[in-house]
Amino acid sequence: MKLWNYAVKVADLEDASAFYVRTLNAEPRIKGTVLGCDYRLLRLGDTRIFLFTRAPYEDLLGEDLPLGFLHVVFEVEDFDARVAALKREGATFFMEPQEIEAEFGRRRIAFFVAPGGVRTEIMEIIEDSGLA
Length: 132
What we know:
By secondary structure, the chain is of the alpha+beta class. It has one domain (2-128): 2,3-Dihydroxybiphenyl 1,2-Dioxygenase, domain 1. Helix content is 20%, strand content 53%. It contains 3 helices and 8 strands, in the order βαβββαβαβββ. It has helices at 13-24, 58-61, 79-88; strands at 2-9, 27-34, 37-44, 47-52, 68-75, 92-102, 105-114, 118-128. It has an 8-stranded mixed β-sheet. The radius of gyration is 14 Å and the shape is globular. The model has no long low-confidence stretch (mean pLDDT 96).
């Protein structure tokens, strides 16, 4: 398991992306849409930052989230086993496991709330476009 990315809600995708490129030498990778939300994906070393103007799950939560940190994503190898372990521990899933496809490839994902209220995603890569 490894940290794959973290996601941030910003007011302006272009301005925020340009800021990370100028100040932290982030590498712009992909502009796209996932689950109906526009994003910019930047890479800083082995870590990626997804910038969104709206979280892909805000409608599921029934609230407008403030600007700033949205969630952290961990890449897992045995997705079904991780989901089962999380459910045994009583994790609250606000986006049930599903398969998605976007510019970065195909993934299996699920979102839950970890202790302390941290929105967390686990993800298994099915096909990788190599763009991320």
